[in-house]
Amino acid sequence: MSAMTDARETLNRLWKPGCDFLGSEVAILGGAMSWVSERNLVSAISNAGGFGVIACGAMTPERLEEEIVATQALTKRPFGVNLITMHPELERLVDVCVAHKVSHVVLAGGVPTSAIIKRVRDGGARAIGFAPALALGKRLVKLGIEALIIEGSEAGGHVGPVSLTVLAQEILPHIKDVPVFVAGGLGRGDAIVSYLEQGASGAQLGTIFAASEESIAHENFKKAFLRANARDAVTSVQLDEQFPVIPVRGLANAGSRGFLKHQAETIRTFQSGGVSKEDAQLSIEHFWAGALRRAVIEGDVENGSVMAGQSVGMVKEVRPVSEIIATLVEQAVEAIAKREDRVHASA
Predict the structure, then answer these.
(1) Is residue 346 situated within a structural domain?
(2) What span, in angstroms and rounded, lies between the C-alpha atoms of 18 and 180?
(3) Are residues 18 and 80 in contact, defined by beta-carbon separation less than 8 angstroms?
(4) How many angstroms separate the Cα of 276 from the Cα of each of 146, 260, 261, 280?
(5) CB under 8 Å to 190, separation ≥6 — which residues?
(6) Distances in Å between the alpha carbon of 214 and those of 12, 81, 229, 275, 296?
(7) Model pLDDT for residues 2-58, shown as the tens digit of each residue
């Protein structure tokens, strides 16, 4: 047997728990990105052997149903739906997923209740949650979550404060009962292997797929990714702790600079008594309303929100999803083969 065949078998063994859990050929999930992770991209990822995930975001139950049905028309393979736990109609959204036999539901953006997890599982779907710390990961498993995603601050969109390197060391050695998928800053297969060897069951990638051929993102949006370096993907800045800003990672542009000015002006107005604290907070929160759609769909990458992870610096061309996944697998296999060579050479 050749070294590469051995390496491929090793990779298959390393992410088998993830593949078995997802029902996919490779344990690579697509990150759920609002406006981007819809029927076309989700079905392309699943059809290429990965696991696509619809980003429900602020969709109504009716709109989500439409998206699920449209995705099922494009792929016969499993895919998931990412639901935001703070959505006012969360129970109805879960019911829509269950009614249409969606195989996996990802509960994001907060700690799901045991009742919601039970609703997902009783309906026949698998429940996945996000763990930004070990204690929360253990708590979620006790509540009935069947798999965890640990996402580092390198990721695009809404992020926590801790890098994947640290989260992996904190969580992977201690959570063995359920599959754990790593996310944040991943753009190569060899990096995925390093986490599989630490005990991860697979990986979630977003940025690399947002710039794929099948992504419906505007050409301007994809071009912004191709031009960007890792350091261009920055988190939103909070000027005053009295007015909290949820950290979101995206490409620095006129919009992000305008947000700083808007915060400063709003805070000044509040301090001079021109506006109440509540109205000032709302004004700051509403600044980005519709900004992601402006960038992704309309192509306004200067004033819109161009959410991207730090792996954006590795996105050098717009490629088909199948090619992206094949490259990730190839890189992973090569990394394992090279490691074996080094180990035997030093023996």
Answers:
(1) no
(2) 8
(3) no
(4) 44, 19, 19, 6
(5) 331, 332, 334, 335
(6) 26, 18, 23, 46, 13
(7) 889 999 999 999 999 999 999 999 999 999 999 999 999 999 999 999 999 999 999
Is 209 in the same domain as 250?
no
Q: Please indicate, yes or no, if residue 240 is contained in any of the structural domains.
A: yes
Residues 6+ apart with CB under 8 A from 251: 224, 225, 228, 232, 233, 234, 301, 306, 308, 312
- Write out the two tokens for 178: 């359920």
Q: Are 191 and 336 in contact (CB under 8 A)?
A: no
* 39 within some domain: yes
Question: How many domains does the chain contain in total?
Answer: 2
Cβ pair 192, 280 in contact under 8 A: no
Q: State if pTM tops 0.90.
A: yes
Q: How many CB atoms lie within 10 A of CB 277?
A: 10
Q: Which domain holds residue 239?
A: 229-307
**In this structure, what token pair is assigned to residue 32?**
């759920």
Q: 46 with 78: CB under 8 angstroms?
A: yes
83: CATH: 3.20.20.70
As a whole number of angstroms, the distance between CA 309 and CA 154 comes to: 6
What is d(CA 259, CA 237) in angstroms, rounded to the nearest whole number?
A: 9
Beta-bridge partner residues of 105: 81, 127
For 149-186, give the secondary structure using H, E and C. Answer: EEECCCCCEECCCCCHHHHHHHHCCCCCCCCEEEECCC
pLDDT tens digit string along 224-267?
A: 999 999 999 999 999 999 999 999 999 999 999 999 999 999 99
